[in-house]
Amino acid sequence: MIETNVSGVFHATRAVLPYLKAQGHGHIINVSSISGRLPLQGGSGYAASKYAVTGFSESLLLEVREHGIKVTTIFPGSVDTASHQAAGDDASWKVRPEEIGQACRDVLRTAPGTCISRLEVRPLKPPRG
């Protein structure tokens, strides 16, 4: 989990950053989670990895904005993923993965002089209980 959620984000950023700095602009979007902002009972390892993504992304913005590089952290709520489907979770109230993709697309369309640094994407309907 740490290798994927934290190291993957770090290494991908480290690989692309020299190119973005050289061109004088760019946009990095990192996907954290609501669990990267709020505690998650029963998911402390996952929450810790997503808190790391959040801290890294928000610090990175402060370091690279003077180079014309934007950094956005996306905070999805419950997403209908294959792992949830395999567990038999009710997906009727969850955000679809393509909706997160649409949010990323929309963030990339912001004006050159502005940056949406945080975007929370939650399902509109609450879980059925």
- Rounded average pLDDT: 91
Shape: globular
- Number of helical regions: 4
Q: Write down how many β-strands occur, each being a DSSP E stretch of 2 or more residues.
A: 3
- CATH architecture assignment name: 3-Layer(aba) Sandwich
Estimate the helix proportion, in percent.
Answer: 40-55%
Pattern of helices and strands: HEHEHHE
Task: From the structure above, extract its key features.
alpha/beta, 47% helix, 14% strand
Can you tell me about this structure?
With 129 residues, the protein is an alpha/beta fold. The protein has one domain: NAD(P)-binding Rossmann-like Domain (Rossmann fold). Helices cover 47% and strands 14% of the residues. Strands 1-2-3 form a 3-stranded parallel sheet, sandwiched between helices.
Quick recap:
This protein is an alpha/beta fold and 129 residues long. The chain has a single domain (2-121), classed as Rossmann fold (3-Layer(aba) Sandwich), CATH 3.40.50.720. Helix content is 47%, strand content 14%.
What's the topology here?
Layout: H1 2-23, E1 26-31, H2 44-64, E2 69-76, H3 82-86, H4 97-108, E3 118-121
Parallel strand pairs: 1-2, 2-3
